[in-house]
Design brief:
Layout lengths: L12 E3 L7 E3 L3 E4 H4 E4 L10 E3 L5 E3 L18 E3 L4 E4 L8 E3 L4 E3 L3 E6 L7 H13 L2 H9 L8 H5 L2 E4 L2 H46 L7 E3 L7 E3 L3 E4 H4 E5 L14 E4 L8 E5 L8 E5 L8 E4 L4 E2 L3 E6 L6 H12 L4 E3 L2 E3 L2 H6 L1 E4 L2 H44 L7
Parallel strand pairs: 17-21
Antiparallel strand pairs: 1-2, 3-12, 4-11, 5-6, 7-10, 8-9, 8-11, 13-14, 15-25, 16-22, 17-18, 19-20, 19-22, 23-24
Length: 418
């Protein structure tokens, strides 16, 4: 594949005599990592801040990226000094790609291995960061760790030290790093453009939906003041209603994973958005009609979903069961979901919208026939946007696959970059 993209292989190859490495360029050697790197055990200085090794391979001061979501040790027992340029391996997360070269001076937990060249001018740590991440993301480190200690994915320095790894000359290591840095930066830039385009599409879709559920489909319709600050004017023939007047408000229940039945008949919905929100299945159900649910707290607090037929909900979901036949649930998914944005209350975990906030939500309500027309229009528009998202996401996946293939080919000698 790489040759078809203009890259050429080395002139000759040889057997590395390591089964999982296979052939390498004739000018390369193979060495155990312990002959190339040594682990440092430095004391911590008063000015050192915490360095974190992330799964995307970045190793930097924690406060350069984010400070939330981490466990803070009350006593920094065993902490060690990290220096800019160290090859850092996160023993617990190496299998997921948490291997890289530190951008910063600082300190880390003892679960990190800070590695430096055993001899000067022999190895380039960024080359081996690329190489070790290749091993991690290809699944090799997981298979290696399972062979070393059962039911564990730890990859500690002693494991790394005994690993046989390719050893090109230092100029070639540096040339490969320069090549990959340039190509990966371009690939990452292309991905960022596509992600920004998706974000703009999502924003545009949301604006269209908001206009539909607050102003309707007829731009010439007479308008009136809604009396709701965040809405402004609405069509003159629309009503202003509170959620409590249209829905019975409830809550899901605690459903432990152990209760789920693999071949159960009825879905259990949670706050997650993957797998259509299905947490699992049971052979019994708590709800036997179409209704709305919403996420009660966290980053997605207030997100509203339609649930159909017989089903269950976990305790992180609020439930809205229609009291009358005067609401189109597909319309209300969008109308209530949009209104909920303005009723969240701040919370230490992000936000909350509990039963009392949901009950108080006011939103504009057109006649039933108009609700149905609006929900159908939103469905058509949403399908077009979903198709556009899918195209962009496939393009992103292709770019990432190309980047991974390029890294793998370069660090294993399948292509020659100089």
């Amino acid at each position: 594949m790489m040759e078809g993209l203009g890259f050429r292989p080395y002139d000759t190859y040889k057997d590395s005599r390591v089964d999982w490495i296979g052939s390498i360029p004739s000018t390369w050697d193979v060495q155990r990592a312990k002959w190339l790197f040594k682990r440092m055990d430095r004391p911590v200085r008063p000015e050192d801040d915490i360095v974190t090794c992330f799964r995307d391979g970045e190793v930097t001061l924690r406060n350069n990226r984010r400070t939330d979501g981490f466990t803070t040790a009350l006593k920094e027992i065993g902490y060690q000094g990290i220096r800019k340029g160290d090859l850092v391996i996160h023993a617990m997360d190496a299998f997921a790609g948490a291997i890289g070269v530190s951008h910063s001076d600082g300190k880390s937990t003892p679960v990190y291995s800070a590695c430096v060249p055993r001899q000067p001018n022999t190895v380039d740590p960024p080359f081996y960061a690329y190489y070790m991440r290749h091993l991690a993301l290809s699944g090799f480190l997981v298979s290696l760790a399972k062979g070393i200690r059962e039911r564990s994915t730890d990859f500690r320095f002693n494991d790394f030290a005994e690993l046989e790894i390719p050893f090109p000359s230092l100029p070639e290591q540096r040339a490969i790093v320069a090549f990959l840095d340039e190509k990966c930066a371009k690939a990452d830039g292309a991905v960022k453009i596509k992600e920004d385009q998706i974000a703009l599409l999502r924003e545009r879709r949301q604006i269209i939906i908001q206009d539909a559920v607050t102003r309707g489909l007829n731009p010439a319709a007479p308008m009136k003041d809604s009396g709701i600050d965040w809405i402004g004017q609405i069509p003159a023939h629309w009503e202003r209603r509170k959620v409590r007047h249209l829905f019975s408000i409830g809550r899901g229940r605690v459903i432990p994973k152990e209760e789920l039945v693999e071949d159960g008949k009825y879905p259990v919905y949670s706050s997650q958005t993957k797998n259509d929100g299905i947490f699992g299945y049971l052979n019994s159900y708590d709800f036997d009609q179409d209704q709305l649910t919403w996420t009660t707290d966290g980053a997605n607090a207030g997100t509203v979903f339609r649930r159909r037929g017989k089903h269950n909900c976990t305790n992180v979901c609020g439930t809205l069961t229609p009291k009358t036949n005067s609401t189109d649930l597909d319309f209300c998914v969008h109308a209530v979901g949009h209104a909920a944005l303005f009723y969240k209350r701040p919370d230490t975990n992000g936000a909350k919208i509990m039963n009392e906030e949901m009950a108080a939500i006011e939103f504009p309500l057109p006649p039933m026939t108009e609700q149905s027309l609006i929900s159908k229009k939103i469905a058509v528009v949403s399908e077009k946007f979903e198709n556009a998202y899918s195209i962009k996401e496939r393009q992103i996946a292709a770019i990432k696959e190309y980047k991974t293939s390029l890294i793998n080919a370069a660090v294993t000698g399948k292509i020659k970059v100089i």
